[in-house]
Specification:
By secondary structure, this protein is α/β, with parallel strands linked by helices. The chain has helices at residues 7-18, 37-47, 84-88, 91-96; strands at residues 2-4, 26-31, 62-65, 72-76, 100-104, 118-124, 130-136.
Length: 152
């Protein structure tokens, strides 16, 4: 677990986390609006040596960032009403590709992400501070959590 005291710290946490990412990794981010998910993805992009401006794909479902050490596929399930929309954009092909998939609001459709997915939870501590819980093997609130670092 990590406590971030600013947007810059959240981004830096993402950049550090990205250094360990490999092709085929899938990250599922959960947390309330404004809890730091997109800021974290900005850091992941930077950590993958991607210079693109990262924005939330809320209205487009996915943004592809192909430059950098690995391709980054950034999804947002927030506005999805059903899992059918994932099939329409070939979500399964993305998670099988040789890049990194990061899914904001993945907890809306937890059964649609691969079982190998690393879950990361963002919670408010205060107006500025956020708790970031890394490495959950299953969606938050789905039972006891197990740290990935013990099994990696």
């Amino acid at each position: 677990m990590f406590i971030s005291n600013s947007a810059a710290e959240t981004e830096e946490a993402g950049a550090r986390f990205a250094k360990e990412l490999r092709a085929g990794d899938v990250l599922a981010l959960s947390g309330e609006l404004g809890s730091g998910k997109t800021q974290f993805v900005k850091g992941i992009a930077r950590g993958l040596d991607c210079a693109a401006t990262v924005t939330s794909p809320t209205f487009t479902l996915v943004h592809e960032y192909l430059e950098g050490r690995l391709p980054l596929y950034h999804f947002d399930f927030y506005r999805l009403e059903s899992a059918d929309a994932l099939r329409s954009i070939d979500f399964d092909e993305y998670v099988s590709a040789a890049g990194v998939c990061v899914v904001e609001w993945a907890d809306k459709f937890p059964t649609e992400v691969p079982s190998r997915t690393c879950w990361i939870r963002f919670d408010f501590e205060s107006a500025e501070a956020r708790t970031i819980e890394f490495g959950l093997l299953r969606p938050p609130l789905a039972g006891p959590t197990i740290e990935v670092s013990e099994n990696r």
